[in-house]
Write a structure and sequence with these properties.
By secondary structure, the protein is α/β, with parallel strands linked by helices. Helix content is 37%, strand content 20%. The chain has one domain: Metal-dependent hydrolases (TIM Barrel, Alpha-Beta Barrel). The structure holds N-carbamimidoyl-L-glutamic acid and zinc ion.
Length: 463
């Protein structure tokens, strides 16, 4: 295979309608697939020996939190919880500078690519400096994430976060939240600035993220959505919705409804929406969310790490709800581990096996991979839904001789990839937007990034 070719012959590939032999893939200079033809060996195209999967979209990331993974796993109080973790996270967030954010994000995005994510949605709220003063350049921190994604070669959906309050009832923000605080006008102004200085393309998309119902008011949420319609009516909208029982109770006390219930009643929630951590829903809310066409953003490793609870995957799957996965706080950046833990949570809860499957296919791996791919593409609102004409050439080339995969065909490959975890990853090469970014398990910018990351981490941990 040559580095600059715009075509390849995939020996065995997963397409939207299933597995195919000898698939001729061709893409254009913008990285979009122009040809996907199975069963026609073309002598001209370089051969990709192995198994080709579409690359996965990561629908929820707070990049800076990568640098604190592993640093909150000690007991400070017997009552340690999501909220005490959040206090530690705020203290850490205070230390980030534009330079350290960029170094951490490049490292993270390289790790994501190596683990099978070819796109990421950044739920980005570190807008101002540590005192809460705006940086001289608007979007200084956003620009660092855009530059990091470009350097790593990962597709990016950037979602600037609107954040106003510390709790329901317009409680004033805490000191630790001052870096996040803004308004609907500020967010739209930022989007305009970003669109001017870093215009959107197939690898870069903008949307918005009202942080949560506890951090914004009903009025400012409406204002943001109205202004967003003028800026870009199809832009993706992400929100943290019902992660903790405490926030559900506070929402009921202040708004007279549970968070998902309230949102569905007051806002036109549709396929442009992604509800992250829809952990605590009644069965009626679960069904209504599935019917809305929105995506549920599920972050299994982070939700387990923070003690959030378990998403009702069974009823949601029965109702045909869209969902995808996010690595959120980045205690793990593995597609395989995220999907495995989603199914394992359901098994432990229901004391059964093979819980999350589609109506027409018994393979758990196929359900998990295909659904997460579709939901991730919707939440990203970029053409990353799989290997089809018009979609991005985002793909993973797996080693078919790896002990995890050897001798297997069809959906058993996905079952094994997710549920058989032995001897390192079989993901060998990764292409994003038509460019090989990982070859033989190595990213081209890995060494430079490691050095910058080590320097950044030394600074963050000593201050
Ligand atoms: C966040 N993370 O914004 O980083 C949140 C914690 C909050 C998760 N929800 C802060 N996992 O929800 O207030
Ligand atoms: Zn989050």
């Amino acid at each position: 295979m040559t580095m600059h070719s715009h075509s390849l012959l995939a020996e065995y590939a997963l397409l939207p309608d299933g597995w195919h032999q000898d698939v001729h893939l061709e893409w254009d200079a913008t990285g979009l697939l122009r040809k996907v033809s199975p069963g026609k060996p073309a002598a001209v195209a370089p051969r990709a020996p192995g198994i080709v999967l579409p690359g996965m979209a990561n629908l929820h990331s707070h990049a800076f939190q990568r640098a604190m993974a592993g640093l909150t796993e000690y007991r400070a109080k017997p009552t340690d919880s999501f909220w005490s973790w959040r206090t530690l996270m705020y203290a850490f967030a205070q230390k980030l500078t534009p330079e350290t954010l960029k170094a951490v994000a490049v490292q993270l995005y390289i790790e994501m690519l190596k683990a099978g994510y070819t796109s990421v949605c950044e739920f980005h709220y570190l807008h101002h400096d540590a005192k809460g003063e705006p940086y001289a350049a608007p979007g200084e921190m956003s620009a660092c994430l855009i530059a990091a994604a470009e350097e790593a070669g990962i597709g990016l959906t950037l979602l600037p976060v609107m954040y106003q309050y510390s709790g329901f009832g317009a409680k004033p923000p805490h000191e630790g939240q001052l870096r996040f605080i803004n308004s609907p006008e500020w967010i739209i102004g930022l989007l305009q600035h970003l669109q001017k200085n870093h215009p959107q393309h197939a690898g870069l998309r903008y949307g918005v993220a009202p942080h949560s119902l506890r951090a914004v008011s009903a009025n400012s949420l409406q204002e943001l959505l109205t202004a967003l319609r003028d800026f870009d009516a199809g832009a993706p909208i992400h929100i943290h919705i019902a992660e903790q029982v405490q926030e559900v109770e506070d929402c009921v006390a202040h708004c007279g409804a549970r968070p998902v219930e309230w949102l569905l009643d007051h806002v036109d929630v549709n396929r442009h929406w992604c509800l992250v951590h829809a952990t605590h829903m009644t069965e009626a809310e679960t069904m209504a969310l599935a019917r809305s066409g929105a995506v549920a953003g599920i972050c299994p490793t982070t939700e387990a790490n923070l003690g959030d609870g378990i998403f009702d995957g069974v009823h949601y799957a029965q109702a045909g709800g869209h969902w995808g996965i996010g690595s959120d706080s980045h205690v793990s950046t593995s597609v395989r581990e995220e999907l495995r833990l989603y199914e394992y949570g359901q098994r432990l809860l229901h004391r059964r096996r093979n819980v999350l499957v589609g109506a027409d296919n018994p393979s758990v791996g196929a359900y998990l991979y295909r659904q997460a791919l579709m939901g991730g593409a919707m939440a990203s609102d970029r053409p990353v839904a799989g290997l089809a004409v018009g979609q991005r050439a985002d793909l993973l080339l797996l080693d078919n001789q790896h002990p995890t995969l050897c001798g297997k065909r069809g959906d058993a490959l996905l079952d094994s990839l997710i549920f058989s975890n032995h001897g390192g990853s079989p993901i060998r090469d990764v292409m994003a937007g038509g460019k090989w970014v990982v070859r033989h398990g190595q990213h081209s910018a890995e060494e430079t990034s490691n050095t910058a990351y080590q320097r950044a981490l030394r600074g963050l941990l000593s201050s």
